[in-house]
Each structure stands twice: as C-alpha cells, then as structure tokens.
Design brief:
By secondary structure, this protein is an alpha+beta fold. The protein contains 38 helices and 42 strands. GO terms for molecular function: ATP binding; ATP hydrolysis activity; ATPase-coupled monoatomic cation transmembrane transporter activity; metal ion binding; P-type ion transporter activity; polyamine transmembrane transporter activity.
Length: 1171
C-alpha cells in the first residue's frame, strides 16, 4: 500500500488532469484525473475532454428543439455527450469553456468552466510566503484588461486552472505541499488581504447540499427515461382516470426534496470561531469565511469542528465517532515543528477533523486555556465533506441483480413490441378507428413493462433497512443491503470486536539485570522506580471534570497502579512544584495508608510532553519531570518487538522472545515499557520524537488478559456452518491472535496452523519465503515429521489447515512473491501486526479473487478496510459514520449474521417482487390480447381495480416478511437471468395463458352463451361474458401467483409470519370469490361485469384457478429442487467463474502445497546466487 501512496503523492496523480498543448487526432483534449474526495481510500480516474461553444451550432440546436417539440433537448439530457458534440467543437483544455467528464463506470458529466474576477496580486496572497519549492504552483490569471480565475466545480469540489502544470487541479493542491514547519509559521495568522484573496480561490467553507425547487426537481424527474415512460403512461391513460400515477410522481418528488433538505441541514455547519490575524488581534468570524492557513483558537470548553485543522499548540480531547466509528475519545497533541511533509492521515493524531467534537482543549493559548490550530482543508475537501460526498455521489454498486433487472426490462420491451404488432393487426381487422388503434396498441407497452417495477424492486431493501434500524444497525447505503446476501468471506478486527474492549491487568514482568523477574500480579506491589512511574505516566488519558476519559487499556493500567490524575487548573499551565515547565497532567501516588506494607512512594510525576500512540509506529512516549523540574525521564510503551528495537541491545534480556511467546500463545495482551533519564539541561519543549525514542533501557512487560466476547464463538460458528469464511485481521501479536482464533472457534482443535514467513532482500541476502508448521519459530521440522503430516492427509484436506502471517511477511509477500499471494489469501485465516494500509490492501486482494468481502471493526485503524469492503460494519455508538456503510450500536459481532440474514431476505424478496411484477404484467398482457382477439377489452375501472386495489397492495405488503433465524449453507442466487428464474417465468406464463384461454373457451361453449356486440369496439361493448370470464380467472391469478412467488425458505420466515400479507390475501380472495360467485351488486355494475346465474359454471372458473395454483406450486417446487442439478449437468466439468473457487479446487488437487520447511526464492533468483 505504501508504494501506491508514494505514487499518489506525485504531482498530477489524484489532484490534476493535464491539459494538452493541442487536441490529438483521436481524442482531443482528453486526460485523466482523480475526482474522489480528499483522503478517499480509492482512486476514481476520470477521462476529461475540452470543448468550446460555437454560437451558430447553439442556435441550430435551439431551432432543432423547437422543430422537434423539445424532444431534442430530452435526448441531450439523456446523452450529455451528444449535446456537447452538437453545440461545441473540440479544443485543448486550456481554451475550453465546456468539459466532458467520464468516470470509470462510464457515467458522463458536462461541466461548465467558470471565471471570476480577482484582485491584482491575489495569487501571491493565496500562495503565501511558504511556497518556495519550484514545483509549487499558483492559479493561472488570464489577463485581458481583467484578472480572471478559471475554475469549475464538480461534486462540490473546486478545480482551478494552473498553466505551469497545464491542468485543472483541485484547489486543495495549493496547500498539499505544506510541511509541519510551514504550518507552525502560520500561527501568527493571515492578514485580512491574504484571507480575502484565499477565499476567492478556495471558496466558502461550507458543505452545500443543493436542494432544487419543486418545479426544477419535477422537470428533472420527468426527463428521466423511467419517468418519461410514466408521463407517457399518464397521457395515454388520462381517459382511464389513472391520476394515481401523477400522485406517485408527486410523492416521489416530495420524498426526494425532503431527503435533500434533511441532508442539507445535517451537512451544513456554521458556527462562530475566533481567528487570529497577522496583526496579533483576535476576531470572531463565521466559519463560512475560513480558508486554509487561518489560525483558529479552540476554546477550552471545546468546539464542533467546521474544518480540518492541524493542532499546533495545546492538547485536545476529541470525539471522532462520526468519522471513525471509534466511541472512545482520542487525545490530540501538537504537530511537531519539523520539515516533514504534512499529511492529515499520517499525522491524524495531530489533526482535528471537520464534524468531530472537541470535548476539551487546554494548554495552547496564551491565557493557558484552549488550543491553537491552523486550517488545512475546507468544504468538501474535509473529512465531513467526504462523508456527505459519499452520500450525495455514491459509487455505483457492481451487483449482478441490478444489471440483470435492466436486461429483463429490455426483454419485456421486446415482448411488448410483438404484442403491439399483434394488437394493431387485431384492432385493424375489427375496424377500429385510427386514433383508438394507436392508443390501444401503445397501451400494450404500458401493460407489459410495468412502470412500478423499479420501485417494487426496492421495497424489500426498504423493509430490511427499517428492521435493521430497530435492531440498532444504521445504513447510509441501502443498495449494500442486497450485497450482504452474497457475502462469502468476513474479516474481523480482534481487539474490541472479537474480544472485550477493556482488559484486566494480569501482572508485570520486570527486568533485573539481564533476566526477567517473577511475574508480579499487582502493580501496587512494585517497588519505587521507573517501572511504576512508567505505568502511571505513559498514557494519553485526560480528565473531563472528575471523569477520566481515554483508551480503556490505559484507564485499566492507571487504575492498577492506584495513582491519581490531577488536572492543571491555572491559566498558564505552570505549577511551581515542578519548576517552570508547562504541565499537561500530574500523576500523584496514592496516600500512604493505601500503599502496601513496605512500599512507600511519595513523589508525584508531571507530564510535560506527549508523543501519542500511532498504529503505524506501534508505540507512544511521554516526557516527565519530578518535583522542582528535576529528574526528567522518557517513558515508552508499545508493541514488545517495537519497544525492544528502540532499546539498547544489552538491556533486553536474552529470553525476551521466549517469554513473550509464552504469554501471547496463551492469549494475553502484552505491552513492553522502556525508559531513559535525560540531562537536566535538555530543552524538553523542543525535543523531537526521534531523539526521545532511542537508546532506551528495557523495563519489562505489562501482561493483560483480554477476554473473548461471549457472542464471538457463537457467531463464528454460525458463519462457518453457513460456508462463510471468517478471517482475523489485527494489529496484535500473531500468537495472541492465534489463541483468540482458537477461543472463538475460528480455528478448531483438529485443524493445523502453518505460519508464513517472508523476508525482503537484505544487504547480503535475497528475499525468501518459508512455510512452517507449529509455533512458526525458526526451528526446523525434520523429514519424518513432514512425512507424518503427509500421511495424516494434511494436503488432501482430510485435515484442514490454516495459514497465519504477520504484517512484515505480508508486505514482503506482496512485493517479492506476488505469484504466491492468491494461494496465501485462499488459505490465510490469521493476519497479525497488520497496519491500516495493509488491512485495506488485504481486502482488495480478496476481492480480486471474486470474494464478496465483509469487514467488521470498531476503530480508526479499520477505516480504510471498512470502506474498501463490499460490506463494512463499524461497531460504534454513532448513528452514521464515514467509516463504513453500516454502523451497529451493539458492542459485539452479533450484528454480522443479522446483516447477512437481512441481506439474503432482501435479495430473495427482490427476486419475488421482480417475478411477481413480471407475471402481473404478463397476466394482464395475456388478458388484453385475448380480449382484443374477440373484439373487447377490460374496462377502465377493471384495470384500476387490478392495478391499484390488488397488485399494488400485494407488492407493498409482500416484502414485509422477516429473515430466517438461521443462516443456510447456500447463498441465494443473484442473477435474474439464471435458468431457474427464466424457466419459472416461462412455464408460469404458459399456464396462466392456457387458464385464461380455457375460461374463455368454456364460456363460449355454454348453451346460454350470448356473443358480444362486435359492432362496438373495445370496452364500449361491456358488459359481456367474454370479459367477465377472463376478469374472474385473471383476478384470481394475481392472488395465487403472489403466493407462489412469495416463498423464501430457507432465507425468509414462513409465509404465515407475514400477518399483514396473509390478511390482505384473505380479503382480496374473499372479494374475488364474492365477485365471481355471488349475484349482481353495486360493485358488479361499477366494474361492468356480466351477470351469469349458472353456479356450476362459476365454480368451474374457480376450479380452473385452483388447478392453475396447484400446478404452479408443483412446478415451482420442482424447479427449486431440480434446477441446480440440471445446471450442474449442463455445466459439466466447466470451471467456476469465480477465481477463488477455481483456486480452491486447484489447491485441493495439489498435495505438495504448501511446501513445508523449504526456503523459496523469487523466480529470478537462485540459492547459488546467495552463496
């Protein structure tokens, strides 16, 4: 992942699209840019072409629009590229006033280039005094008696023209090159002229969600192809009193407006903030006026951040649950003053993100209260802007179900064409007038392609979303719910996800000389010295009132020592007891009466500097002083291997690795501590982290017990039984992860574990790869043991094996052994010591094998992986988080099987509704064509009765059925064009048509049959016997088919659990039986039904429908049972389309993989080369 990030930091990658000196013959003015939000985990490349408007072409298009009665404008709205080609001519991007953007998904956007007059010299103010590197650039000011800024806005982000790069670049590029020292220089504040100039270029600091007027929204909805079809239906059916379609459009538009307004109120954040100016004065301004480079004072009581900002002075306790899903407040510390390039992600411990809540700020302002920050990103470039952008402009979900739905609509369109041709022939032969013939022929199209079909497909998803919300699972991307139903692999973070968030201190293992002492179970029993001081002071815990807040591990560590936190209350932060240092926190030992016998600690410790924990660095450190400002100490805490690497080698006991492995293999969480004394003359205020964290003395190990959550084993067991592969991805030690995996049944006792060791090339060695069984240490396995494993059938899968790998080996594997990566991913279950970037890379690697990947985590370290996964679940108290599409308020992974069950239920419901709506249209299609054949038709109210009172109501309540209580081993199908679905539709349609034809033939064969008046066309000859017989059978067919397709076992609860649906069925069945069997009533007259007195005939019609129902149910059961076997026979030995299934079959047939205990070198290397 690091190599990808390094590439992205180059100019032009992810921020600009290059302008060409002239259009190329093939694709003039085209280029590529990244349009994704700043800091987005994925790169979205866009092809951009430049065009210049030609006035005479524009007038010609206006003329064409008038002549075509607006149809040309509708075409341009559907196909923006055609509109641009018709009105413009291609040109180089520097000369363009119109841009055509096309993303990787094929979506096209037309963007107008805007110009704005700016003040002379504003570019220098916008650039500031910091841009001395020659690669830094500024906004191009095209001077023609005026100074103009050329830019465009796409998805809320502003792109400005920069001639030196020959590109439109994100405006954020102007501050992307800032170093940490540059930001510290901005503490003095901007002048008002600087601020005004920057605001012209960067724009307002506001996340503006556009809310369109009712008229504009209605026009845009109507111009949508689907709504154009609805408008066509409305116009066609006005005579049939089908006003409810217009009402539907109004309701949909109203809901859209409401959602946009709600999102706008959520997104917009306007507060008053205190800004420091270059003159030294401080003024209160609206957050809308903030620009990158502004120096803002955060008050001591906190602030809801309106922008992204770097913390320069003081400390802040921040709630980032909206951003990361992490419910534990995070301590932010000042940005180091060095030449390192500033990156909000790399320095996230020094960055306050937009939308997060600063709970407390202290130690930064001259008054002693509050903190000082410098604005780095505004508007849609901020973290909150990223969240809103992901909601406003979601990436298309690449899901086969949605693709097949559109293909089937096209198929129905073809059927409608054939029906239209047939109806034209039949109506022409019946001497129908031309206006009536056109209307009735086009009517067939609206019948075969049901306008309500797309809306019906979302019903199951909406019900699932509502059920999830009741269970505490919130979703910001509803289309992902159906994707949950196809999950084949789920990754889990360990700490706080599979295991409890809090830990219990098991004991302390101190170092004495060159060996470890016995484990001390209670840290209060530690003698006075650096170890107890390290445990008490090496943390980021803060006080909010009398409440200690911070990482649960650190809270438990402090609690175990008995020491107490003391907040610095004076304004300057200086306490005379500790000299002239500004103090962040004071740690005082317990009173003498609370200390164990024989132990007396009286001297407090004051923390003067903090270097916070980073998942990348795997450590944190503090600088402390004693009373009088004497005895300055450095304390370091972190991953044992990392701490040991920063210590003097002679201070680390020789048995360090063995001791560590003993604890972690038993599932303990182990941290190491180290320290060193500093010279009293050292300037502690300016000391760097690199100077602090070197040449330390190893103190010992803090051993903590991390209990597995009781729900974890049950959930993992459910997933394994459902053939969903569980994987653990953690930053913890590999042996600890292995123990937790065994505790939660991710690894069963009889299953073998093989460790994967990969190392990069060194000065005198080449890259190597090795697979080792058992403890994964360097001990070799003899040949006899290897043969025993082979005899046990390890490679034949009679004894299943799992691979375990750590982050360093994973990086070496990706870089030097890419050909082995897919196989390791196929069998890998434990991924330990993984950095956040590696977690993301792992998710993407699994997706390349065609897995549908889920990810469940609870912290900031998992954000990238959560967003990269097909289904990301964040365990958090927040209702919405930028971290993932799903946020669960439960503190355990029980939400995972719930999500999968709801996804499967939603997917099956969508299938059922799709089949039902398709069959509904085909039933009505058959009815109309049959009646056209005998020169009649359904009445308007009969259409309305079927469409509104029956089908619409059934479609709405059909999706209410909840998910099954258990996960079935087979996943539901996702293809609408699969053999079972298509064969079911075809066979049902044939039966439905035969039933209606049978009813008509039986009617015409009766002795009392009276032919209709053929001189009256269409519905003008109602009531008649032909129409009444077809009405009776087709009405019952709508009901019986809803029962036939509503089955959902084993993914949904049985039908009777959907009480509302059953009640609707009973009511509708009762009404239809009443209309068929009973004598003429007011409703019969209203629907224009013929009164037939022959009860035997009426019962025969009901019997036809009952036989239709029985045969359809039998067919559906046979298709469900036999279709999979038929597919397997038809497929034969063809390999699966999914890469992971092909690879799994290959590994099952390869008894020699993995090659145990063999050193493997890259293909281009050899063992001889090493020697």
């Amino acid at each position: 992942m690091a190599r990808y990030q390094a590439a992205l930091q180059l100019w032009g990658a992810g921020s600009c699209h290059q302008g060409l000196s002239g259009p190329s013959p093939k694709d003039p003015g085209s280029t590529v840019l990244n349009s994704g939000p700043a800091g987005a985990p994925s790169v979205s490349h866009m092809d951009v072409q430049g065009y210049k408007t030609v006035r005479w072409k524009v007038w010609l298009c206006h003329l064409g629009a008038v002549c075509s009665v607006g149809l040309l404008l509708v075409l341009f709205n559907w196909r923006p590229r055609l509109g641009v080609l018709a009105k413009c001519t291609s040109c180089p991007i520097p000369m363009a006033d119109t841009l055509l953007l096309r993303d990787s998904h094929g979506q096209q956007f037309v963007i107008e280039v805007q110009t704005e007059e700016t003040e002379q010299g504003s570019i220098d103010h916008a650039r500031g005094e910091l841009e001395e590197d020659e690669w830094r650039d500024d906004v191009h000011l095209h001077e023609e008696q005026k100074t103009l800024l050329r830019y465009y806005v796409f998805e809320g982000m502003r792109y400005v023209w920069m001639p030196r790069k020959g590109a439109f670049c994100k405006v954020s590029i102007l501050n992307e090159g800032w170093t940490c020292a540059d930001l510290h220089c901005l503490q003095r504040g901007l002048t008002r002229l600087d601020q005004s100039s920057r605001r012209q270029i960067f724009g307002d600091n506001i996340i503006d969600v556009p809310v369109k007027s009712c008229l504009r929204l209605l026009v845009e909805e109507v111009l949508n192809p689907f709504y154009m079809f609805q408008v066509f239906s409305i116009i066609l059916w006005m005579s049939d009193k089908y006003y409810y379609y217009a009402v539907c459009i109004f309701i949909i538009s109203f809901i859209s407006i409401t959602q946009s307004t709600t999102l706008r109120s959520m997104a917009q954040l306007m507060v008053n903030v205190t800004v420091r100016r270059a003159s030294g004065e401080e003024e209160l301004v609206s957050s809308v006026e903030l620009v990158p480079g502004d120096c803002v004072i955060v008050p001591s009581e906190g602030l809801l951040m309106p922008c992204d900002a770097a913390l320069l002075a003081g400390e802040c306790m921040v709630n980032e649950s909206m951003l990361t899903g992490e419910s534990v407040p995070v301590m932010k510390t000042p940005l180091p003053d060095n030449k390192e390039r500033y990156s909000p992600e790399a320095q996230r411990r020094h960055t306050l993100f937009c939308g997060t809540q600063v709970i407390q700020a202290k130690g930064g302002h001259s008054s002693g209260n509050g903190a000082v920050v410098v604005v780095t990103r505004t508007g849609f470039f901020t973290a909150k802007g990223d969240l809103v952008s992901s909601i406003l402009y979601p990436q298309p979900v690449n899901f086969r179900f949605y693709q097949d739905a559109m293909k089937f609509l096209i198929f129905l369109g073809c059927v409608a064409t054939l029906g239209t041709i047939y109806s034209i022939v039949m109506l022409y032969r019946s001497n129908t007038t031309w206006p009536e013939l056109v209307i009735r022929s086009l009517d067939i199209v609206t019948i075969v392609v049901p306008p309500a079909l797309p809306a019906a497909l979302t019903t199951g998803t909406l019900y699932a979303q509502r059920r999830l919300k009741k269970r505490g699972v919130f979703c910001i991307s509803p289309p992902r719910i159906n994707v949950c139903g196809k999950i084949s692999l789920f990754c889990f973070d360990k700490t706080g996800t599979l295991t409890e968030e809090g830990l219990d201190v098991w004991g302390v293992k101190c170092v004495s000389g060159t060996r470890f002492d016995e484990l001390i179970p209670d840290p209060r029993l530690l003698p006075p010295g650096p170890m107890v001081m390290a445990l008490a002071s090496c943390h980021s815990v803060a006080l909010l009132g009398d409440q200690a807040i911070g990482d649960p591990l650190e809270l438990k560590m402090i609690e175990s020592t008995g020491w107490e936190l003391e907040e610095v209350t004076n304004e300057t932060g200086v306490i005379s007891e500790f000299g002239s240092y500004r103090i962040l926190m004071v740690m005082r030992p317990p009173a003498a009466e609370f200390q164990p016998t024989g132990i007396f600690i009286s001297q407090p410790v004051a923390i003067v500097r903090r270097f916070p924990f980073s998942s990348t660095l795997q450590r944190m450190s503090v600088v402390t002083v004693g009373p009088g400002g004497d005895s300055p100490h450095i304390f370091l805490k972190g991953a044992p291997e990392m701490v040991a690497s920063h210590c003097l080698q002679e201070s680390v006991p020789p048995q360090f690795s063995n001791t560590l492995n003993e604890f972690v293999s038993e599932g303990f969480r182990v941290l190491a501590l180290a320290y060193k004394e500093m010279d009293a003359q050292t300037d502690l205020r300016s000391i760097t982290r690199a100077e602090v964290e070197k040449d330390l003395l190893f103190l010992g190990l803090l051993v903590m017990k991390n209990q597995v959550k009781p729900e974890s084993a049950e959930v993992i067991g459910d997933l394994r039984r459902a053939q969903i592969r569980p994987v653990m991805v953690t930053g913890d030690n590999i042996l600890t992860a292995l123990n937790v995996a065994q505790s939660c049944r991710m690894l069963l006792p009889h299953e073998q574990v093989i460790f994967v060791h990969a190392s990069p090339p060194g000065a005198n060695s080449m890259a190597s790869l090795q697979f080792q069984q058992r403890d994964g240490r360097d001990a070799t396995i003899n040949t006899q043991e290897t043969m025993d494993i082979l005899e046990q059938g390890l490679y034949q899968n009679s004894l299943k094996y799992h691979l375990a790998i750590n982050g360093k080996s994973f990086a070496a594997l990706c870089d030097h052994f890419p050909e082995y990566l897919p196989k390791v991913l196929m069998r890998g279950t434990i991924y330990a010591r993984m950095s956040p970037d590696q977690k993301t890379e792992l998710i993407r690697g699994l997706q390349k094998l065609n897995y549908r990947v889920g990810m469940c985590g609870d912290g900031a370290n998992d954000c990238g992986a959560l967003r990269a996964a097909d289904v990301g679940v964040s365990l958090s108290e927040a209702e919405a988080s930028v971290a993932s599409p799903f946020t669960s308020k439960s503190d355990n992974i029980s939400c995972v099987p719930l999500l999968i069950r709801e996804g499967r239920c939603s997917l099956v419901t969508s299938f059922s509704l799709f089949k039902y709506m398709a069959l509904y249209s085909l039933i009505q299609f058959a009815s109309v064509l049959i009646l056209y054949t005998v020169k009649t038709n359904l009445s308007d109210l009969q259409f309305l009765f079927f469409d509104l009172a029956m089908v619409t109501v059934l479609a709405i309540v059909m999706g209410r059925g909840g998910p099954s209580d258990e996960l079935h081993p087979r996943r539901p199908p996702a293809s609408l064009l699969a053999l079972p679905v298509l064969s079911s539709l075809v066979l049902h349609t044939i039966l439905l048509i035969l039933s209606q034809v049978a009813a008509l033939l039986i009617t015409t064969s009766q002795e009392w049959y009276i032919p209709l008046n053929s001189t009256e066309p269409g519905s003008h000859n109602l009531p008649n016997m032909e129409d009444t017989s077809v009405f009776a059978v087709s009405g019952l067919q709508y009901i019986i088919m809803s029962i036939v397709v509503a089955k959902g076992y084993p993914y949904k609860k049985p039908l009777f659990h959907n009480v509302v649906f059953v009640l609707v069925l009973l009511v509708q069945f009762g009404v239809m039986i009443w209309l068929v069997l009973f004598p003429e009533t007011f409703l019969h007259k209203l629907l224009q039904l013929y009164e037939i007195t022959d009860m035997s005939y009426k019962l025969l019609l009901v019997a036809i429908a009952a036989l239709n129902f029985f045969i359809c149910c039998l067919l559906e059961a046979l298709i469900d049972k036999c279709a999979p076997d038929c597919l397997r026979i038809l497929r034969g030995n063809r390999s699966s389309k999914k890469q992971y299934k092909r690879l799994d079959a290959l590994l099952a047939e390869t008894p020699s993989w993995p090659p145990l205990d063999q050193l493997i070198y890259p293909p281009q290397c050899s063992v001889i080369g090493v020697s």
